[in-house]
Amino acid sequence: MKPSVPLTPPTNAETPTPQQRERATTIFERSVAGRRAGTLPPLDVPERPLDELIPRELLRDRQPELPEVSEPEIVRHYNRLSRRNFDLDTGPYPLGSCTMKHNPRLNERVAALPGHARLHPAQDPRRAQGALELMWRLERALAEICGLEHVSLQPSAGSHGELAGLLLTRAYHEDQGERRTRVLTPDTAHGTNPASVTMAGYEVVKVATDERGGVDLEDLRAKLDERVACLMLTNPNTLGVFDERIAEITQLVRDAGGTLYYDGANLNAIMGHTRPGDMGFDIVHVNLHKSFSQPHGGGGPGAGPIAVSDRIEPFLPVPRLVRSEDADGAAPRFDFDHERPKSIGRLRGFAGNFGVFVRSYAYIRSLGGDGLAEASETAVLNANYLLARMKQGSAGRFLPVAFDRLCMHEFVLSGAPARRELGVKTLDVAKRLLDFGFHPPTIYFPLLVDEALMVEPTETETKEGLDALADAFEQILAEAERDSEIARSAPYTTPVRRLDEAKASRRPVVRQPL
Amino acid sequence: MTRYTSATDADLEAMLGAIGVGAVDDLFAEIPADLRLGRALDLPAGLSETECFDHLASLAERNADADAELCFLGAGIYDHYVPAIVDAITQRSEFLTPYTPYQPEVSQGGLQVMFEFQTAISELTALPVSNASLYEGPSSVASAAYLAIGATGRTRLVVSRGLHPHSRETLRTYARGFSAEVVEVGLEGGLTDVAELRDALDSEAAAVFVENPNFLGAVEDLRALASAATEAGALTVASVDPLTLGVLRPPGDCGVEIAVGEGQQLGGRLDFGGPSFGFFCATENHLRRMPGRIAGETVDLDGRRGFVLALQTREQHIRRERATHNICTSQALNALGGIVYLAWLGKRGIVELGELLARRMAYARQRLAEIDGVELLHEAPAVREFAVRLDAPVPAVLDRVAEEGIAAGYWLGREYPEYDDGLLIALTERRSKADIDRLADALARAIAETAAVDGLLPDSGKKPSMAGEVGA
Ligand SMILES: Cc1ncc(COP(=O)(O)O)c(C=O)c1O
Question: Are B258 and B404 in the same domain?
Fold first, then answer.
């Protein structure tokens, strides 16, 4: 277990870091009977016994065991916990498919303005005109970026948008008196795509990928028939390559009577350069928490607005945001329209993740049209530069690119040679990167690539950051050539070392016994 | 260069050189020419930070927020005080900017937060397993239907009319994908009609969906509802208000198998309805069918305690089309706010808050019922929200009190045609006795004036369209 050569950064499993010496302690374990943080306003109405107000049998017998901790200790607890996280504000985070771009603090500030943060969703729309106008402007911007005229901001994340898109497809076909049962997804698709297909009541049919990383047209043709409701695709796809035959693909599906769904998780590659609507897609979801700078929050919140074509529009979720203009030239008015007879209905409460809309709208206005196009250019430049560096030296030898062509905003490497020749798996390389102060790329996705490493630097990473990342890979591989055990036992410097994930699933402990 | 990128001309030259192309545009060469946009996006030019701030601030100013008005709006989202430490902690970069914890060694903070959150929610609901969050309330209800259908092999969803209208609508939307049928059970005296529920239950019923307190604010007898479901072999799904669980009998003690709900009450901003979080708890036997992330405790190589994402084989990234749900990005940051809030409120606070609300509720109900032209819509017990009927068109009354800076409540007419004269009024610890008195006085005046102007009563004009859907 003990590494045989000095490590960089130097550390060693037998001399734990101060953080490693600290045993993880939960807020419940810090609880001391009698302590408290929050206090409430005093009772200003008669103190009636509770069981006089609510029958005893509807009341709780045993108090819930929430923590009893003072405010200073709560703050310390969560501050300490925060230091056990790696985050984008601290270092490079080239997590493929996740678009870990900088999260501007301005956006946090404007989202916190009382007019936004303190606005109740049931407020009369006449007294929430600023909020409705913001949403309307965001809808218009997304329509322009996607090249599809009609937008609903309602879905709460990408996968929610996917489900919406599939239910829209179902409603569209039913309206035509048709019942279709299958949805095509390429074998490179993100896991949410097939999962959404099942939730929407369809059967998944996989389409193969050709030798250039695009859709295998022959396989697509073979699988297209009157049972196919939809093709779900992302372009550039999860291999980071742009499918040049996209217009032909969408035409084939359209001719077969299917709808076309564009998974917009990769929109960061193409903003202002090409548009899903122009490629022939009907429905697009946009991950505002990817391309439009909403912070990921350790797993959300996000938002997954959808933009759709004319033929899908009648089915969009309610309520729809509408704008009207009086003839007398007064300021336009905004309202929610609930009366859409063909609508698929609601997908959630109220009008969506408004706080996310504020941040993404601020982002779009900060950059403007040209700035968004430039963001995509720089994202593609950064990815291609990093790829060029990764093709050299040991990285080029042990972690070759899966499809050797120009990439868009991300690329996929295969760690198969590293595993074969060095005995070091992609997982090991990723874990060792943690010691170098980088968050690793996405690993083992897409499934098509053996030992995949999916790298997305985003436009906000600097050239120095990219160089440092490439250097770290180089060093890790050089180290592995000397002694593969170093990577296999990594990481060493993180708050904990490799964790037993199998145990956590075999005998799940998912809450603390109190 | 935009202000969020940093490639200088020198960088650009070096990078293009390394790639081996002459210009950035060459990198887009694989996009066919006829698909290139070939023009600038038709969007306003970029703004400096101060201009952008000013623009957003000018939009925000056009909203009457809960600081500008006395807010009695609820309907699932409530104006509770958000403690300063919630903002301070959720705005820390280390929590704000990471992705979902796919690399547990550098995500122990976020994973432990999930574990603590699960513990607190499980404790509140008295159900043994909780996930780490779903999007929000109504979609969590629909997610429970997906589990219930999978667990029972049945496809009929029996829904109380006391369930939040947004939840019922969301359930209907999702149900088309599940090929499930939705049947609605009416209310009697503000509460789910148990006799009608028993009639609606048969061997095809997958689950019964109820809310507690229900949308009209009435505290349901969850045990009676759950036992009716159990007798028919159906699961009970209760959507619960977590802040009432310091005083109300928790779903887990009532025979409920799945508890879900909206978490905004727990330290969340109003945010015009989102982002907040949804929660999802269940009895142990449903653990492997649960939707969403679940953190679990384990140990590292050296035996140190640590946390990981547990039971990932349920999830879309592993199980794909056979996953228990499609959710990926969820609401982790809001759930962090939730556990910080619950720690702040603490073991005593959650009970005290429930008691304070229930007592103010009793006062408010009595105070309003004394007004000429106001009567209680139901007499069922209530904790934090209650419904009244007005002897005047509700929208007109709401407009009048709004002129006095009061958002008096939520008009029930759109979603409940049978309560076209209904108004739903919510309390939080921020609405004092003096505020309730102010509301009562304003309502009394507004009802008198509206009734005087309109001559005869009540006809609000705008008839809702949902009537046809009732019980469908
Ligand atoms: C390609 C792709 N599609 C869909 C999704 C799902 O998006 P979300 O996490 O917002 O639900 C993701 C996000 O991980 C993705 O990378």
Answer: no
Please tell me what DSSP assigns to residue B340.
Answer: H
How many domains, chain B?
2
Query: ipTM score here?
Result: 0.97
Cα of B177 to nearest chain A Cα, Å: 4
Query: Is the four-CA dihedral A186, A190, A195, A201 of positive or negative sign?
Result: negative
CA neighbor of B42 nearest in space, from A131, A279, A304, A147: A147
Q: What is the pLDDT along chain B (472 residues), one digit of tens a residue?
A: 789 999 999 999 999 999 999 999 999 999 999 999 999 999 999 999 999 999 999 999 999 999 999 999 999 999 999 999 999 999 999 999 999 999 999 999 999 999 999 999 999 999 999 999 999 999 999 999 999 999 999 999 999 999 999 999 999 999 999 999 999 999 999 999 999 999 999 999 999 999 999 999 999 999 999 999 999 999 999 999 999 999 999 999 999 999 999 999 999 999 999 999 999 999 999 999 999 999 999 999 999 999 999 999 898 998 999 999 999 999 999 999 999 999 999 999 999 999 999 999 999 999 999 999 999 999 999 999 999 999 999 999 999 999 999 999 999 999 999 999 999 999 999 999 999 999 999 999 999 999 877 654 444 443 333 333 333 3
Task: Find the DSSP H helices in B417-470.
Answer: 433-454
Q: Which domain holds residue A34?
A: 25-82
Buried b (16+ CB within 10 A) or exposed e, A114-126: bbbbbbbbbbbbe
| Of the partner residues A131, A198, A375, the one whose CB lies closest to the CB of residue B2 | A375
Q: Do A365 and B55 touch (CB under 8 A)?
A: yes
Q: Is A434 on the interface with B (CB under 8 A)?
A: yes
Same domain, A75 and A155: no
Residues A171 and A279 placed together within one structural domain of the fold: yes
We report the CATH number of the domain holding residue B204 as: 3.40.640.10
The CATH number of residue A206's host domain is 3.40.640.10
Domain that holds residue B115: 84-342
**In this structure, are A208 and A334 located in the same domain?**
yes
> Does B98 sit within 8 Å of A84, measured CB to CB?
no
Distance, in Å, from the CA atom of A246 to the CA atom of B413, rounded to the nearest integer, reads 49
* B41 falls within a domain: no
Does A424 fall in a domain?
Answer: no
Total number of domains in chain A: 2
> What crossing angle do the helices spanning B165-178 and A158-175 adopt, rounded to 10°?
70
Q: Does the CB of A106 have a partner CB in chain B at under 8 Å?
A: yes
Q: Is B92 close to A160, i.e. CB distance below 8 A?
A: no
Q: Please give, rounded to a whole number of angstroms, the shortest distance from the CA of A42 to a CA of chain B.
A: 8
pTM: 0.96
Query: A84 and chain B: CB distance < 8 Å anywhere?
Result: yes
- Residue B236 β-bridge partners: B208
Kindly state whether residue A18 falls inside one of the protein's structural domains. no
Query: Scanning every residue of chain A, which has its alpha carbon at the shortest distance from the alpha carbon of B96?
Result: A297
